[in-house]
Amino acid sequence: MSLRRTSSGATPMTQIFSSEADVVVADPGNLAAELAAYWSGYDVEIETVGARVTAKLGIGSGVMEPVDGALRFRLECSELGNLEILRSAVTETLAAFGKREPLAIEWRGNMPTGRLFADFREVRLVSNVAIAPRIRRLVFTGDDVARFGSTADIHVRLYFPPEGLATPEWPRPGPDGRTVWPEEGRKPDVRYYTVRRFRPETNEIEIDFVMHDDEGPGSAFASRARPGALCGMAGPVGRVAPKAGWTLLAGDETALPAIARMLEEMPRDTQGLVFVEIDSERDEIPLAAPPAVVVTWLRRRGAPAGATDLLLRAVETAQIPQSDDVFVWVACEIMAAKALRKHLRTARGLARDRHLVVGYWEREVEEAAAA
Questions:
Q1: pLDDT tens-digit profile of 250-309?
Q2: Per the omega criterion (within 30 degrees of 0), is the bond before 267 cis?
């Protein structure tokens, strides 16, 4: 662990957790290039200086550099829990790349000391009520859940244990950095959700569940769970739209809880546009938008989610000011997100720090699961 200091070298500012590993491989430079290309496909920002490759990996950063016949990795995060998750993801990626050349990976630095991940908490359901025809609000409580009340990172990972399991079992960090999961039949399903609100006075977390026709793990839990039910919660992760004079928010119903929260927390003098793709009028909910932010509901009218270009056409025709005080935030199906990101960067010329486009779900995966 290290401490970032101010430019004057005075008071410690930010605690940094780090891990390193030297991976012996026949061609370290080629492995670094392959990993950089792989991450670039997921819109990871890559910087290459000589043989040194730096990747901005969302919850932290990674540096790869050939050293004495090995590829040295260094991961840095501001939270130990994020470091554990990032280390697990990088190790899994390396293991996949190592199928043609087995790789020995031994991490050092800030290693796990607990039975569970540092950012993981077991939580208990307090209440479960319908707030709209297809949205249920679930309220959770537990030990140290205030960590999920962040205003910068608003998403959490929820772990749903198999129905009927008397004692839930949770993933834990393994010795090589990878996640060790319970055996099949006891393994929880994991989905990402938006923290709608944290109530510090009662130590409770509100999360809105969008109920889908093809019931996934989250919808199944929300439709049946009663107060006292247990699940796991980890995080927080995921960025919000930063404060800007003019903001565009766009997404399908999976992004509606995040859009609703961001609108509530926006300065009241913000200007902008909001586009929300839904199936029909019955999916609309009240949104506390600032007076100068115009909300438009885009209705599919029975078309499958992720199968239309409603969001893309709305954003393409939107009047976005030519200004440095603009931010565009989009969350939707993965292929739709790719098309929107391409439009914002090429047709609009928006810099990376002026927009965030996230793929929340993948249509092909959802269809395969429902088949």
A1: 999 999 999 999 999 999 999 999 999 999 998 899 999 999 999 999 999 989 988 999
A2: no
Residue 5: predicted pLDDT = 36
CA atoms of 337 and 353, how far apart (whole Å): 17
Q: How many domains does the chain have?
A: 3
- CB count in 10 Å sphere of residue 46: 15
Cite the DSSP H helix spans in the chain: 28-40, 80-97, 217-224, 256-265, 310-317, 334-342, 363-370
For 187, the domain range is 120-238
Amino acid at 322: Q
Considering only CA atoms, which of 294, 276, 293 is closest in space to residue 285? Answer: 276
3-state secondary structure of 57: coil
Q: Give dist(CA 74, CA 57) in Å, integer.
A: 12
Q: What is the CATH number of the domain that holds 196?
A: 2.40.30.10
Give the span between the Cα atoms of 238 and 59, in whole angstroms. 8
- pLDDT at residue 110, as a whole number: 87
**Cβ–Cβ < 8 Å for 208, 155:** no
Task: Kindly compute the dihedral angle of the four CA atoms of residues 230, 173, 178, 14, in this order, to the nearest 10 degrees.
Answer: 100
Structure tokens at 233: 């919660």
- Can you give the pLDDT at residue 368? 47
Query: What pLDDT digit, counting tens, does each position of 82-99 carry?
Result: 899 899 999 988 888 766
Q: Are residues 252 and 365 in the same domain?
A: yes
Q: According to the model, what pLDDT value does residue 100 have?
A: 65
H/E segment holding residue 300:
none
Residues of the chain with pLDDT under 50: 1-12, 368, 370-371
Helix residue spans in 19-169 (DSSP H)? 28-40, 80-97
Per DSSP (E only), the strands in the chain are: 2-5, 12-24, 45-49, 52-56, 61-67, 70-77, 108-109, 120-132, 135-141, 153-160, 172-173, 179-180, 189-199, 204-210, 230-239, 246-252, 271-278, 292-299, 326-333, 355-361
